[in-house]
Amino acid sequence: MQSIIDKLKDNMQLLYRRALDADQTLARLQQQGQGKFQQIFPDDAGFQVQSKRFGPYVEELAKDIVALEAQSDSPSFEQQLAMVVKKMEQLFSTLSGLKDSVKK
């Protein structure tokens, strides 16, 4: 189980750095009058937080990973792991999409 948690933490570091860059990009776009949206992810995406920036989503995911690590012996570990992985995939995908769309 610890190797899974370690991989999640490694991915979190990568997500954190990408989120910082993406938030700077979003701030620039909004200063230019673009990027007019209320939140990054829809209500049914699995996140509790609603934000125009990636930072709060990454912070929520980091808290989820800490909670998951504390529950490594719990019967609900696999269910919680699936939720964490889903959020992580959504963040990676959305960050990648933003990066690609800004390049064009």
From TrEMBL:
Domain of life: Bacteria
Protein's name according to its UniProt entry: Prephenate dehydrogenase
Organism (species): Bowmanella pacifica
